[in-house]
Specification:
By secondary structure, the chain is an all-alpha fold. The chain is built from nine helices and no strands. The chain has a single domain, classed as Methane Monooxygenase Hydroxylase, Chain G, domain 1. It is about 75% helix and about 0% strand. Pfam families: Translin (PF01997).
Length: about 220
């Protein structure tokens, strides 16, 4: 039977553990707040794609996006250094939402520059983190998928604004990419309720894009392939 002294000593050690965990969470919180601020800057920049001036110059938007992402790298390195080895998922809830936003921002930048879908390994490289879970602080798969689903919603909006502005080629490119994305998601069996609900929204995004393409076709504005 444990003596009273042993019990007191044990509870002191428990308090030390809880205190250390709280210290780590507070340090992570500060870094994540700074990352959130960078996400807002990226979001503000990317809204220019819906303006006529932005539609005509994706190249400059990509250049400015990359400059902002350069400011994200040291924050990500700081975050990685604050998370104790082997405890990634213990603290994952602290940064998962900002990571999803960053994946979306990088995926949109990648699309504007290449008209292609950003793969997970490329997203991890852009964000200066590992791709594989076994390698430590990594890009979680569900965070990556959430980012792609946000991209689909933004591209559905871009399909409308670009068609209105006379960029009739862009809805076709968007339609092809989102259709391929949807085909990929259809292969997955979602266990995560939040991810499944977001995937349901992808179907509506695709339908919205298809309506834009159909409208261009019946008006004789669909570019020849």
């Amino acid at each position: 039977m444990a003596s009273q002294d042993n019990i007191i000593t044990s509870f002191y050690s428990y308090q030390d553990v809880l205190g250390e965990e709280q210290r780590v969470r507070e340090e992570i919180y500060v870094i994540v707040k700074n990352l959130e601020a960078k996400c807002r800057e990226l979001s503000t920049l990317h809204q220019r794609i819906h303006f006529e001036s932005g539609l005509g110059d994706f190249g400059q938007l990509v250049i400015h996006s990359k400059k902002l992402l350069m400011e994200v790298y040291p924050l990500m390195s700081e975050l990685v250094s604050r998370v104790p080895a082997g405890q990634y998922y213990k603290y994952h809830d602290s940064w998962k939402y900002v990571m999803q936003k960053l994946v979306f921002a990088v995926a949109l930048m990648h699309f504007l520059g290449t008209k292609k879908l950003l793969l997970k390994e490329d997203a991890a490289e852009f964000l200066n983190v590992e791709n594989e879970r076994s390698d430590g602080f990594h890009l979680d798969l569900e965070d990556y998928l959430h980012g792609l689903l946000s991209l689909a919603s933004e591209l559905a909006r871009l399909a409308v604004t670009s068609a209105t502005a006379g960029r009739y080629d862009l809805p076709m490119t968007i339609s092809k990419l989102v259709s391929e994305m949807n085909a990929g998601f259809m292969l997955m069996n979602f266990k995560n309720d939040a991810l499944r609900k977001r995937y349901d929204a992808l179907k509506y995004d695709q339908k919205k894009i298809e309506e834009v393409v159909f409208d261009l076709a019946i008006r004789g504005l669909k570019p020849k392939e």
